[in-house]
Amino acid sequence: MWVDHTVWWSLYPLGFLGAEAEALPPGSAPVPRLAGLEPWLDYAIELGCSGIALGPVFASETHGYDTVDHLRVDPRLGTDEDFDKLVVAAHSRGLRLLLDGVFNHVGRGFPQFTQATADPAAARWFRWQDRPDGSRVPETFEGHDLLVALNHAEPAVAEYVARVMGHWLARGADGWRLDAAYAVPHAFWRDVLPQVRAQYPDAWFVGEYIHGDFPQAVREGGLDSVTQYELWKAIWSSLNDRNFFELSWTLDRHNDLLDSFTPLTFVGNHDVTRLATRLTDPRHFGHAVAILLLVGGIPSVYAGDEQAFHGLKEDRVGGDEAIRPTFPAGPGSLAPSGWPAYRLHQRLIGLRRRNPWLVTARARVEHLSNGNLALRSVPADSSHSGLLLLLNIDDEPFRFAGAGRASTVVADAEPGSESGEPLLLPPHSWRVLSDG
């Protein structure tokens, strides 16, 4: 499938394009901000990416996850015609487009919710809780009072979601990220997705899952993939704690997941603290990126991480602002300090694209200690010996004496400064080796 060759560059459009924090007043003219993404498409291609994963672009009340109309582009971003132009601009460059579908909950301005008190049919779109006084209130998403939960047992909701997905796939989208899919019954996706696939068999569907039985979600929900939060956490946590045993354990489970499906992998996204902020030692930034791009999965790079942006997510109103900043009008206005990280991503994404078998590669640990890891990625069919990733996060050089036959350096933390001994790594460095 086409997605096997995709590296996503994901972005949060409302923040990226500097949109207002709240919906425009009724009657306001749309602001054609989506056009502002076009100067960044070539930047994504030069990075090595082949797909753009967009955060919410549909009409909402504030941050995009409180949707009020899934069939209309948010006026803060433009019009449907602006979306069509973005599709043409992306596809003409060979870039796929992934949309963010918020189908677990909606904003309180969603039409059916505003009609719910007077219209029993509209009320059935939502889940309700009875109060002791006889009144009832809508269920909300994880305590967020402005996000009302849809009733996924209501046939009208399933029909609506299938219609929304088909509408945007017909306009050129290539797939859907299903927000908060973990909160939706598997049976709902199992009902909706075959309807959509019947018309759009090449569409790709990835569910947001933070924890749980990922293979079950894929199997029972009919999804193609889920977000690999376990690997995300293990990458930065093992580097911060100097504990590669955590990463090794997680990679064993990751190998098991690959027997069922190909996960969406990442070291950053629009919901978490930036990698450059999360890591306690900036010398280990390249280690994290190398792990992401040398293990199996469909990788995604969150816009700005390739420039080593900093940003702390905070548990408060507006706590996402630092991780969802406004970008300049074009790449030429980015700070000079970020380009070494960009070139690091280019080298590693390029290595991955030259070895397309990495999408389903299995990870085998050949050396393991708290501060040193030799990780071999091999093809699922074991047709050759693969690539060997060496990681050293200690303060002293380390020689990987028992790490196999690999001897040719194909990527290094410091290009052009490779040691005469490929298996001898300087402190706080990484290297990728091949047998020849």
Structure description:
By secondary structure, this protein is α/β, with parallel strands linked by helices. The protein has 3 domains: 2-106 and 147-360, TIM Barrel (Alpha-Beta Barrel), CATH 3.20.20.80; 107-146, no CATH class; 364-434, Immunoglobulin-like (Sandwich). It has helices at residues 13-16, 38-47, 80-91, 111-114, 120-123, 155-170, 186-199, 214-221, 229-241, 244-258, 275-278, 285-294, 339-354, and strands at residues 8-11, 51-54, 58-60, 67-73, 96-101, 105-107, 128-130, 136-138, 140-141, 144-149, 175-178, 204-207, 225-226, 264-266, 298-302, 362-368, 372-378, 387-392, 398-399, 408-412, 424-425, 429-434. A hairpin with a 6-residue loop joins β3 and β4. α9 runs antiparallel to α10 (244-258) and α12 packs parallel to α13 (339-354). It is globular and about 75 Å long.
> CATH-wise, what's the superfamily of the largest domain?
Glycosidases
Which architecture name of the largest domain does CATH use?
Alpha-Beta Barrel
Sheet with the most strands, sense and barrel status: 8 strands, parallel
Q: Determine Rg (CA atoms, Å).
A: 23 Å
Class by helix and strand content? alpha/beta
Find the CATH topology of the largest domain. TIM Barrel
Query: How many beta-strand runs?
Result: 22
Count of helical regions: 13
Secondary-structure map with pairings?
Layout: E1 8-11, H1 13-16, H2 38-47, E2 51-54, E3 58-60, E4 67-73, H3 80-91, E5 96-101, E6 105-107, H4 111-114, H5 120-123, E7 128-130, E8 136-138, E9 140-141, E10 144-149, H6 155-170, E11 175-178, H7 186-199, E12 204-207, H8 214-221, E13 225-226, H9 229-241, H10 244-258, E14 264-266, H11 275-278, H12 285-294, E15 298-302, H13 339-354, E16 362-368, E17 372-378, E18 387-392, E19 398-399, E20 408-412, E21 424-425, E22 429-434
Parallel strand pairs: 1-2, 1-15, 2-5, 5-11, 11-12, 12-13, 14-15
Antiparallel strand pairs: 3-4, 6-10, 7-8, 9-10, 16-17, 17-18, 18-22, 19-21, 20-22
